[in-house]
Amino acid sequence: MQTINGKEVSKKIREELQNEIDQLKEKGITPGLSVIIVGDNPASKTYVKSKDKACKQLGMKSEVHSLDGDVSEEELLNLIDKLNNDETIHGILVQLPLPNHIDEKKVIEKISPNKDVDGFHPINAGKLLVGEDTFIPCTPHGIIKLMESENIDIEGKRAVILGRSNIVGKPISLLLLEKNATVTICHSKTENLKEITKEADILIAAIGKANFVKSDMVKDGAIVIDVGINRVDGKLVGDVDFDSVNKLNGFITPVPGGVGPMTITMLIYNTVIAARRLERGK
Ligand code: GUN
User: Fold this and answer.
1) N or C: which end of the chain has fewer CB within 10 A?
2) Are 145 and 115 in contact (CB under 8 A)?
């Protein structure tokens, strides 16, 4: 397989974003992202740190609000309210998952749809569904950019998505459908999974099971996008058994260094869009 280098693609897009950020700053607008993290989930902490670092590297305003794991839902909602009204903040992201005592839906719906750089608010998710301009969720958007970087033609192709989450599975299905792929969504209750995945020209693995996709599930020549980030014996591995699938022809994204860097890049992209909208509205 040919490896799609997410770090390289990411670097190129960040260079373009750097120009946009510099231009906005000349007009007196510094794109600002506020990330809220609740509790001390180690993976979430790592992601949040990377997001903060990437924003700062590009000269954006970036702030992280770390709240205790036992913070009340009300306190979290109040903080979001404050950030909704903070003119220096263009994007708000609440890192998921949240502790069980907090209602994730309520939290997502509290974020102003104009600052919802994750694209998770039902208004933005609805816009994506009907094909209106909106914040495209970062990981699915990154996947499309990775495929575009290799000039992969999506139209008419059979795309199979493993996973139906609101963060990846559902939105990537819509984006691929918009690009005229024939889309099948598989999940934990799908029967005869292998028969379906073997038909895929484009296979997206987003189920959170380490090394789940083996070479006998993949068609020779397929494009395999691995969204999984799993820790096995202290090592990061994807949802795709890389060594086995890599023996086939086609394209594959590695873990780490594939989809991961793109997610952060597209988050910056959305924050820049949010800031630019403000500049236009002035
Ligand atoms: N947790 C895992 N992925 C994401 C993401 O893209 N955004 C947020 N907010 N939380 C996540």
Assistant:
1) C
2) no
What one-letter code names the amino acid at 3?
T
Ligand 1 atom closest to 118 (CA): 7
- For the record, the structure tokens of 163 come out as 């996973």
Extract the tokens encoding 153.
């033609």
Residues contacting residue 245 through CB under 8 Å, at least 6 positions apart: 1, 213, 214, 215, 218, 224, 252
Is the Cβ atom of 96 under 6 angstroms away from ligand 1?
A: yes
Report CA(44)–ligand 1 centroid distance (Å).
Answer: 8
Using the mean position of ligand 1's atoms as its centre, give its distance from the Cα of residue 248 in Å.
Answer: 31
211 lines ligand 1 (CB under 6 A): no
**Residues 129-148 pLDDT 10s:** 999 999 999 999 999 999 99
Q: What are the structural domains, with CATH classification, of the chain?
A: 26-113 (3.40.50.10860), 138-260 (3.40.50.720)
Residue of the nearest CA to atom 11 in ligand 1? Answer: 96
Q: Which of 3, 2, 4 is nearest to 145 (CA)?
A: 4
Of all protein residues, whose CA lies closest to atom 8 belonging to ligand 1?
95
Token pair 């068609």 in the structure block, residue: 219
Reduce the DSSP state of residue 153 to 3 states and report it: coil
DSSP states of 158-184 as a string?
EEEEE---TTTHHHHHHHHHHTT-EEE
Residue 95 CA, ligand 1 centroid: distance in Å: 5
Give CA–CA dist 204/73, Å, rounded. 34
Per-residue exposure over 160-182, b if at least 16 CB sit within 10 Å of its own CB, e if not: bbbbbbbbbbbbbbbbbeebebe
- Active site (annotated) includes residue 118: yes
Task: Point out which residues pair with 234 in neighbouring strands.
Answer: none
pLDDT 10s digits, 53-92? 999 999 999 999 999 999 999 999 999 999 999 999 999 9
